[in-house]
Amino acid sequence: MLIRIPRGWEISEGEVTPERVYLNRRKFLAGASAALAGMGSLVVPGGDGLARGRPDRKDRSSARLLPLSATRNAEYQVDHPITAEQVATRFNNYYEFTETKARVWKLAEEFDSRPWQIEIKGLVQKPRTIDVDDLIRQMSLEERVYRLRCVEAWTMFIPWIGFPMQKFVEWCAPLSNARYVRMVSFYRPAQAEGQRRASRYRWPYHEALTLAEATNELTLLVVGMYGKTLPNQSGAPLRLHVPWKYGFKSIKAITKFEFTDQQPATFWNATVPAEYDFLANVDPAKPHPRWSQAHEQLVETGEVVPTRLYNGYEKYVASLYK
Which of 58, 150, 172, 215 lies 20 to 30 Å from 164 when distance is taken between CA atoms? Predict the structure, then answer.
């Protein structure tokens, strides 16, 4: 008899909160406001705090989302109920559209995420360009529930659908001297208001991982969430999720993967090097220059809890940084 030992980052299907079960907006905002009042330094200067949008307003883009079939591993584990879809898809950091979290979903409604070409280049056996849907058809999808920890000290729990980046890297066939993978997002100022207005940023958004990080078992390339394809505001059609790092490492709407033997520049490290480093690992003992990272706020409930080293995934990733 084959006995499967659950991994520590897996959660059972029975623990997943039904999508229909979520807090109403007023209760959510009241709890969040009360918690923010007691947090002080956790509120990011210049930020817009927790969601102040209109989650009851009709989102036309939601009609374009398609059901997405994926295998749910039997025992994914997070120690908290899943964040309601309505909250997770209306509270987004996506500066290409706006710096106001509650407006992202509206401004991204008409963004064209299909058709979508992805370029693979650099130190690979065969540089190529492939349509995102052709790539998805070559990968086995699975659902994983992961924590999402923002550098601004807030947290969600999201059921992502995607495929391990390790499988994608193998498919790309990097050369033996490849050490990093650089990723680049889109550049469409005509469709992305933030790219037109926020000229101080070095668009397009770009990020990178070491090849060891990219091939870690936790690293996921995401094509859906909550049983459907990704909405535009969440990074459609293809994004990254690296659960032990701050959320800004998980680049959205990827158009290019480049394998290299040199550490690439990354968006926030190049923009504000004194505040954001290349690794961006969640670490409660390493404060941001403008606020503490010792605690985090759960977006849906407003509860403030201690931050965990590597966002709670220490045993899977600590060996990468010895």
Answer: 150
